[in-house]
Request: fold
Amino acid sequence: MKQALIAVAALSAIPAAAIAEDFPPLQRVPVLEEAITSTSPPVKLVRGARIRFAPRQPTGLHRHPISVVGVVTAGSFVFKREGEAEKVIKTGDSFFEPAGVTIERFDNTSSTEPAEIIAFYLTDSKDRPLIEMLGAK
Reply:
């Protein structure tokens, strides 16, 4: 016990500046920059959700009345915004769904593994719907 107290006392004597010097400076690498369209309401509230997809599960044709930004936290997805080419986004990749733009695909690419995203809804109120599901296109 006495040795543990001596170790704690010795560690607490190390200045915080000395510990900070052991780390390289933080780097901020841009991963996403998108304009928020005028169709999006003023952002007064950010709502976040973890969304899990079963193997092969699609989201279905949809759009949002607000802009949505997020990151893939597991697996990969086929992602297609209306008027753009399909692309695959994978773990660590970010995505943006502008308000009022139809999302034609947001589908788990794996037939055997689940996939997951964390989505942040940039909204003006907790009462505004987050998604509008659309019929087949």
